[in-house]
Design brief:
The chain is mainly α. It is built from 27 helices and 7 strands. The longest helix has 30 residues. It is globular.
């Protein structure tokens, strides 16, 4: 290991609990159970008789119970994701999930009964004073699902059975990948390490890593196909009973975005494949001296990229200085993640291979997980997750029920943080070759965020549509995958059968179906937002912080209105995609100048 990658931070979960046996955790669960039982006794079958003051009190009580349960389950999730191959912690997490499911079953009636109230009753409660009116955004979000709600008995059955249904299949997926090891030239590597090799400078290592990854996925493909088929079927049954028009509709509703807006995004991106990814990878192939790149070279460092590894301090200072130049207030919040050990950055066996910022609960603080290998992409990942973390800190004042942001706008601060960091790095160098490397890296990140994620969305769309007619074979899943990947990446990327199993490691397909378009939504949104910042910076930071601080209290139309943006307008997506296209234009001009 390079000395630059030593002593990477591990988070301290002591702000939540001191360990699985901490009496504070047990006390919180016992208290939550008692409060939930009391809540059920007082309010079940009684909401229609409440006045505005008592209704507001009921929501406050529900929020307090939710906070206790979310704090406990968040601790379990965080502990599990860095110890996924530890049997004791796995059992602890499963038992914790089951206990919390049992407790939350007692309060499940509350949102169901809210949806049975008439619109007139809801309005009278909102107009009656007290805390009820403050929770209007949360109530409006709950009532979005009113027409898709089942009977109380069915909802309770589904809720209780989840620990042996979807949750169990997700756990199987996670534990399967936690235990997988990939034989790369005789060395057994975990997922994070083998994926890191796909962007290694050594082409032979990239090829070996890709083939080893595909081989091990193929050896487990029947199990992974079974997980995918089972969860897709469960979703189809749930969607049918709840009368959702399309597989994506429930996700759109949860994201508080209209089907038509998502359709406009997907169609705009897919129509731009040729102008974006096809054009860029043709250019990258030229840099590598070939007509087309093997798929394992898609994220390869450029041949003229001699960039050294970043140390953790380098990455920290790069991101914080970029944040500081934009907003000292935001930089101050971001710095707390480093000072207080809220980040776990060291790659490790048994650790989740991805990256995230977990909001936990407003009374605590977020935690960031990532796997830092010292590459420029890792710096961007740090900037991305810190953006999420800052967003979550600012939104915490909205409380447990209203601090979460719909995923369509949840990616705003993260992608904006990446853009600030990228611009800072470009402005900080006068070397034309380094500028070209940075620009190409940014384009690749944007293609991975926009083109790749929309292709993922198209894969899910086909899979869920075909699953209605029966189980899909591993071969058919691979066929769909290769088809959408070929279409999105273009002729300058060579795909073969060894790439056919790569669909099976994408966690979003398992954890959160149809989540993936949110990344493209966020990237295009930020491109448009950043364009507004460049052209009209006066007062932008204040409006930006106010937007982040609103949490889940406003929909995308309300959030974007102060900036003069409208996601329902097709020009909005063209503006965002135009930023990516413009960067590729610059690279082509640089290439022409170098010839």
């Amino acid at each position: 290991m390079s000395s630059k990658l030593e002593n990477l931070p591990r988070w301290n979960l002591g702000d939540l609990y001191c360990g699985p046996q901490d009496t504070a955790l047990e006390n919180d669960l016992v208290l939550a159970d008692k409060l939930a039982g009391d809540f059920q006794s007082v309010y079940q079958n009684n909401l229609a008789q409440l006045d505005a003051k008592k209704f507001g009190s009921a929501i406050n009580d529900y929020e307090a119970i939710s906070e206790l349960l979310q704090k406990a389950i968040s601790y379990g999730q965080l502990l599990f994701t860095v110890n996924m191959d530890d049997g004791d912690i796995t059992r602890f997490y499963q038992t914790l999930q089951e206990r919390i499911t049992d407790i939350s079953t007692k309060t499940l009636f509350f949102t169901l009964e809210i949806n049975r109230l008439s619109d007139e009753k809801i309005e009278s409660l909102m107009a009656g004073g007290g805390d009820a009116a403050r929770f209007r955004p949360w109530i409006n979000e709950i009532r979005l699902f009113k027409s898709h709600q089942l009977s109380d008995e069915l909802e309770m059955y589904i809720h209780e059975k989840s620990v042996s249904g979807k949750t169990a299949w997700v756990r199987l997926f996670e534990e399967t990948f936690s235990e997988m090891r990939f034989d790369v030239d005789g060395e057994k590597l975990a997922q994070s390490d083998v994926l890191n090799l796909l962007s290694d400078k050594d082409g032979a290592k990239r090829k070996s890593a890709a083939l080893a990854f595909g081989k091990t996925l193929s050896e487990n493909i029947r199990l992974l196909a079974l997980i995918t088929n089972t969860l897709a079927k469960e979703k189809e049954i749930d969607d049918r009973w709840r009368k959702y028009a399309r597989p994506v509709s429930s996700r759109n509703l949860a994201n508080q975005v209209e089907d038509e807006v998502v359709d406009a995004l997907v169609s705009s991106v897919s129509a731009s494949y040729e102008n974006l990814s096809h054009r860029y990878y043709k250019l990258k192939s030229k840099w590598f001296g070939c007509d087309a790149l093997d798929y394992w070279d898609r994220n390869a460092p450029l041949p003229f990229d001699d960039a050294a590894l970043f140390s953790w301090d380098d990455a920290k200072n790069t991101v914080l200085s970029a944040y500081e130049a934009f907003s000292p207030e935001i930089a101050k919040i971001a710095d707390r993640f480093f000072e207080n050990n809220w980040i776990d950055a060291a790659p490790d066996e048994g650790k989740d291979a991805g990256a995230y910022s977990h909001p936990v609960v407003p009374s605590a603080h977020p935690y960031i997980l990532m796997n830092f290998h010292g590459k420029s992409r890792d710096v961007m990942t740090l900037a991305h997750e810190l953006g999420h973390g800052v967003h979550q800190v600012l939104a915490a004042k909205q409380g447990t029920l209203m601090s979460d942001t719909p995923v369509t706008t949840a990616e705003t601060a993260s992608v904006f943080g990446e853009m600030l960091t990228f611009r800072s790095m470009v402005d900080g160098t006068s070397d034309p070759l380094k500028k070209r490397v940075l620009l190409a890296g940014k384009v690749e990140d944007m293609l991975n965020t926009v083109v790749r994620q929309v292709a993922f969305h198209e894969f899910e769309t086909v899979v869920h549509a075909e699953r209605k007619s029966g189980e899909l074979s591993p071969e058919r899943l691979s066929e769909i995958w290769l088809d959408v990947q070929s279409s999105s990446l273009g002729p300058a990327i060579k795909l073969d059968s060894s790439y056919g199993s790569f669909w099976s490691y994408i966690p979003h397909f398992v954890h959160t179906p149809f989540y993936v378009y949110a990344y493209a939504f966020g990237d295009c949104l930020v491109n448009s937002l950043y364009d507004v910042y460049l052209t009209n910076p006066d007062g932008f930071q204040k409006k930006y912080i106010e937007m982040l601080s609103s949490g889940g209290t406003m929909r995308h139309a309300e959030l974007l209105a102060p900036f003069g943006l409208d996601a329902a307008n097709p020009d909005f997506w063209k503006r965002g995609l135009g930023v990516v296209s413009g960067f590729i234009d610059q690279l082509e001009e640089m290439e022409a100048g170098a010839d």
